[in-house]
Amino acid sequence: MTDCKVSLLGADYHDKFDPRMYLQLKERYLEVDMEFHRQLHYSCKQGMFKGERLLELGEGPGISRLIAATTYFSEIVFSDYTASCREEVRKWIENREDAYDWSRHFKFVADLKGNGLVTMIPDPLEPITCDPFDGIIVASCLEAACPDIASFESSVKAVSSILKPGGVVIHWGRLGGNFCKVGDAQFHALTTTEEIVREAYKQAGFTMIHSVNVGNGGDDLQHLADAKNYLFIVARKQNVTHD
Ligand SMILES: C[S@@+](CC[C@H](N)C(=O)[O-])C[C@H]1O[C@@H](n2cnc3c(N)ncnc32)[C@H](O)[C@@H]1O
Q1: Are 160 and 168 within 8 A, CB to CB?
Q2: 5 alpha carbon to ligand 1 midpoint, in Å?
Q3: Its family (predicted)?
Q4: Which pLDDT does position 180 carry in this prediction?
Q5: pLDDT tens by residue, 34-89
């Protein structure tokens, strides 16, 4: 049982989220993540997701989410709220010896091209100001960051605010459940449904162009994260301005 434990969020990430533990945990979700890679690859190949500037919002300590998109964007910006996660990514950018080994993920999506990689710290719970992006990947972040549906909806609007008109967001998030464990620490996960997520994107001025439901990786992972499903969405920001 997990409901007797306090679920952590917000500033708890700074001292209670263990990036390496999270990366080890992610290896157990390889099959679920491979479906994310396949869908991202498909979205890029179909021309749905491409442009100059790509933001990965709340990427955590890993770089794997954007591998398939690297050839379709010329500048990639990593971001995460938690300093230790950004440090883990910096090790990889700087090619340091103690960087995490992503080879299993690269085998799947192949051929990462050198891009202008930088890191930054936008927080979807606050107004975000930065140059707008052509594409944003927001994976398993809003459910972690948002305490309730109202903040989820305003976070989707914050995501929209830094996307160019006509720009595209890839949203990957859990449906159902309310926690995720990293080692002994149990983190909050907002309980959502597909309808809630779709409505939030609709309210923020997006049009859905592709969406897929993906399984939760099996019952033996439920003690780690009680997601019922994962949802992959490709949504385009409306109000396209024509020159
Ligand atoms: C479950 S992890 C997901 C990491 C990664 N995107 C993935 O798919 O594996 C949740 C991430 O959300 C980040 N996060 C938590 N609160 C946040 C906030 N207010 N703004 C941005 N990121 C936040 C955490 O630092 C953490 O890296």
Answers
A1: no
A2: 20
A3: Belongs to the class I-like SAM-binding methyltransferase superfamily. NNMT/PNMT/TEMT family.
A4: 95
A5: 899 889 988 998 999 999 999 999 999 998 888 888 889 988 888 999 999 999 98
- Structure tokens, 230: 């994962």
Asked if residue 119 has pLDDT above 60, the reply is: no
The architecture that CATH gives domain 12-237 is: 3-Layer(aba) Sandwich (3.40)
Cβ 158 vs Cβ 129: under 8 Å: no
63-77 b/e (C-beta count within 10 Å ≥ 16 → b): bbbbbbbbebbebbb
CA distance 60 to 73: 20
DSSP state letters, 93-138: HTT-TTS---HHHHHHH--PPP-EEEEE---TTS---S--EEEEEE
Helices (H), the chain: 12-16, 19-27, 30-45, 83-93, 103-109, 142-145, 149-161, 194-203
112 and 129 Cβ atoms separated by less than 8 Å: no
- 3 state DSSP class of 94: coil
Whether 61 contacts 177, CB under 8 Å? no
Ligand 1 atom showing the smallest separation from residue 82 Cα: 25
The token pair that represents 195 in the structure block? 């309808």
What are the tokens at 241? 């301005």
Ligand 1 contacts CB of residue 124 (under 6 A):
yes
CA 190 / ligand 1 centre spacing (Å): 12
* Separation between Cα atoms, residue 13 and residue 138, nearest integer Å: 17
- Best substitution site from 141, 155, 170 to test ligand 1's pocket, by max atoms within 8 Å of Cβ? 141
Nearest CA residue ID for atom 10, ligand 1: 141
Structure tokens at 214: 């993906």
